[in-house]
Records
---
Amino acid sequence: MVRPTIVDVAQAAGVSRATAARVLAGATNVDTAMAAAVEREARRLGYETNFAARVLRGGRAGAIGLVIAFDELGSLSGTFFTAVLKGAAKGLSAGEVQPVLLPADHEDLDRIPRFLRSGALDGAIVILQHEITHLVERLADSPVPIAWVGRPHADIGPDPIVIDSDNYGGGVLAARALIEAGRRSIGIITGPLDLEQARERTRGWTDELARHGLTPGPIVHGDFTLDSGTAAMARLLQRAPDLDGIFASSDLMAAGAIRVLQAAGRRVPTDVSVVGFDDVLIASTSDPPLTTVRQPLEEMGRAAADTLLATIRGLPTEKVQVLPTSIVRRESL
Amino acid sequence: MVRPTIVDVAQAAGVSRATAARVLAGATNVDTAMAAAVEREARRLGYETNFAARVLRGGRAGAIGLVIAFDELGSLSGTFFTAVLKGAAKGLSAGEVQPVLLPADHEDLDRIPRFLRSGALDGAIVILQHEITHLVERLADSPVPIAWVGRPHADIGPDPIVIDSDNYGGGVLAARALIEAGRRSIGIITGPLDLEQARERTRGWTDELARHGLTPGPIVHGDFTLDSGTAAMARLLQRAPDLDGIFASSDLMAAGAIRVLQAAGRRVPTDVSVVGFDDVLIASTSDPPLTTVRQPLEEMGRAAADTLLATIRGLPTEKVQVLPTSIVRRESL
DNA sequence: CTGAAAGCGCTTACAG
DNA sequence: CTGAAAGCGCTTACAG
């Protein structure tokens, strides 16, 4: 089962390897008969360009790394990551580039930076998550370009590629929706504050409340997971039993919060309105279905892939993109 | 930003490239002073073996493909796939091998087989899903070994690696649980019958009912998605309004079925018991939480990775593994 | 123990 | 338009 090389194809077609290479590369200035022979033999032999040889010769690796938090895979919060991944994979696929998963684990911090130095990848997309923040600085001086999904807190060098959604605007939308529903005692469950996303959502919420002359209700922190939402909600209820509105910075935390509210005898949305963030699966399967701030996750993944590929190929492109958030009205408000 | 080569390291250390290569490969029969110099210079220069050159020289590609249904990514049923993926990624990671996503789309059927012929991968793991069955035959004559998660229907050549769960046994467990709960008019929502998994679950269910002298209730078909579960449940109710038990071959379909039952005024489990299959996220977030047949999805992914790597490395290994299913009792029964 | 040399498969600048 | 040759960076069989 030895793979045929370009020499085999050239021999079978009765031409030099240079000619065979030209035909296979799509050159047009080749004798028609020769070209036909090369193409016929390549097909007959099942020839496929040896990938390692092409890369070594100076081509692109044809692969892009996708840095994700290992533990997110298959977990509750996996839906956020898979949506971005889907968009990124589609974009890379359309660009004939292979997505390589680079799960960030805590055991070997230098593993991913090292891999980026090996020439196996033309670039990487980093999906910023709580569990990854410790890697940001190590990735910042990568020899290949990196597209960040979400805005890193740390310094990531000059002219970075950053694809984000309008988290501040999303926080504003959430606050406004709660206010318009007549809520006046509004608390928040934030995400982990080492993530710019989480801080921006909180800031938008605070500012919008202030614009309406309302004092922000109690602020408690979660880490975007369902369990952290239940814990945070329990704390909120203790600190402000008269709460009538809650902005949870992720749908998972919103779902967790609703359970705690219901267990405490509060009806959603009759007694308390809840607004989530993300618009992932659980937003529509939760009971009641969540009113939430939608992030265009798949589009963000797609934009990261397209922008990174354009950069690698030296094409002009917008390096910083902030995609709009919007409110999706269901029944928790 | 030129990457240092082994020649740069050798020069800096004042030895030949052969000696440098030996040191870097971990050879012990090298002068201690030379070895120390090589290691020092390699670190100082930030040397990393050029991946393409090593592969071309005859080494392993150090990468394994993960063939998945593109549309599953980020969709409702993504949870099944992400759980397997997590296990596989962990296993590959532990083996110092990179997981490369190979999303199967319908536009270019030869894309993945072609890639497997390019030498870029040492093997592949195929997660069998409905959307992938058309690819099975094209993958069967891959030049690199393939590990199948789930048992393909088609012929896949001699001595294949197959990691599966005990679907038949799971069907038996589901039927038995429904019978022990006193149910006598029991219907089934099967998965897509081009998947062996779906057929085996149905067979286990049928056989167990027969063993108890019960005639199988109506059989309707879904495709594992939530929407197909609601549609199937509507048909079941039409055909057998007196149904008191349902085995849905996926948790998503079970969740969909429960909604339809509740909308039709049936209480779960008081009037109708429902048993699902998989034990993914929605099983515990559904209302009521699902009693379901658990597949050890992450373990299956891990076993696929371990078995494939052992095969590639020529180590002895069990090529066909059927992992046990078990029943997880919650509140839908 | 160490080094010079060959060769993996490809692409392209160069000569004709 | 075509072919002979060089070279990408690595590893290892061979000679010393």
Note: The domain at 63-166+297-323 of chain A is CATH 3.40.50.2300 (Rossmann fold).
---
Amino acid sequence: MAPPPPPPASSASSASSASPPPQGRTGRPRLTSRAQILAAARRLIDRDGWEKLTIRRLAAEAGIGATTLYHHMRDKGDLLILLLNDYVDRLERPPLPEEPRARILASATALHDALAAWPWAAEVATTDGFVGLLDESALWMVEGIVSGAVGHGCTQAQAVGLFRGVWYYTVGEILVRAHSAGRRAAGGRPTGFGSLDASRVPHLAAIGARWPELAARDTYPEGLRALVDGLLAGATPTPSGEAGRARGDAG
Amino acid sequence: MAPPPPPPASSASSASSASPPPQGRTGRPRLTSRAQILAAARRLIDRDGWEKLTIRRLAAEAGIGATTLYHHMRDKGDLLILLLNDYVDRLERPPLPEEPRARILASATALHDALAAWPWAAEVATTDGFVGLLDESALWMVEGIVSGAVGHGCTQAQAVGLFRGVWYYTVGEILVRAHSAGRRAAGGRPTGFGSLDASRVPHLAAIGARWPELAARDTYPEGLRALVDGLLAGATPTPSGEAGRARGDAG
DNA sequence: CCGACTTTTCGAACGCGTTCCGAAAGTAGC
DNA sequence: GCTACTTTCGGAACGCGTTCGAAAAGTCGG
């Protein structure tokens, strides 16, 4: 029954720093470093757009065979996470508020904005253990949410639960936004709103043609506030360790 | 700035009923009906599993050429939505509570459970205008959420906003769950929890190895309740049409 | 110097979703 | 019975992510 969502880990398949083992290594030496591949990927994206980032094109840009790339990364998702860490690394890190609730909201908004500004985030954001694949330089957003929850009096379990709720809501918004934008860029129909049976779905029929207008608004902040307030209200305000663990969580 | 999320429409590219134009039609007559294709798809899924549902295999199962399928549906996403509607049609429709908040929760849970039980939902749930592609026999879940919101005193804008919040949260949970389950089925590493810098991310470091255990719990219901309560609390309780539209929504 | 051993490189191939375009098979008008 | 016209059919091909296996290029122990 319990779904297995993103757990963190220090360094998984895709580490961040280019490990320096050019000394006394056995086997054929590499002709291309990971840094060179990432640089080629950035060049390719800047020049042709991120949807043109394919394995073969990247290999051509880097001047190597396509299959050689698979000795530097497990699959394309790995490459995207590498690029994401690289992108977040360059991001400036704003100061977070001290007040717990404000810190949660600021951290979540930073997380959301980082993903929203990264058009190809949708392709990896739901990877198993995604959060655990982030560099420590990106984990400050997760830390901000968890620390805010703990600072408000949540137990560890409640804090992780709050983060997961925020994560689900955020990643859902990002993915729907990304796919809508993609289709909208293509020649999509305006999705008018035709004949709904008013006796079966009266409220939807009443909204009718207004739906597209209403659904086009950016309601992420309101939803985030509502979610966080609701979760914080359900959390025990006893700041002592694990007390009251039976309340407010899946018992 | 405003993202364009799922708007409904009565019947888009993928209608539900097999239209009956076998009379006086010009052009070459079809050898295969849409119903036959869907039946072949269900057969294929039941026999080999849904991950084996590919265009070519489906064509072979239906006894037609692969490219012929594209005269019956726009693309594979269309096929999946056809199958989803077909699946939801057979679903029993539980009675919904009268009380607005309870109706919202019941409708959202039904939506969530329907998607969660449909393993390939993740591939289409974020399609642009997804909700609008649903048959009326599936829209009762959306109607339940919107009607609950309106019944609580929300304006149309607030009701649509509430639905979108619930939709984002739900689809995020579904997608993360689906991708986690997929990887976990394969030989995934246990995602332990290595060495985090306690001075940079103290709370994450403190949680440490407990994260997987805490993240494995099913916290969807708590998050849903929190989100709905928060959004209802922010909505104006004036049940008169569009009054108070400036409050609680994107002004 | 020479065979193990290890690692990298990459051409060939697979199955995928999808597009192109010519051939086939009907109806409609004459 | 012909000639349009319209629609369906499906083989060929494209680019995609990914796997396989053989060749290449180093280190190491003797």
Note: DSSP finds nine helices and no strands in chain A.
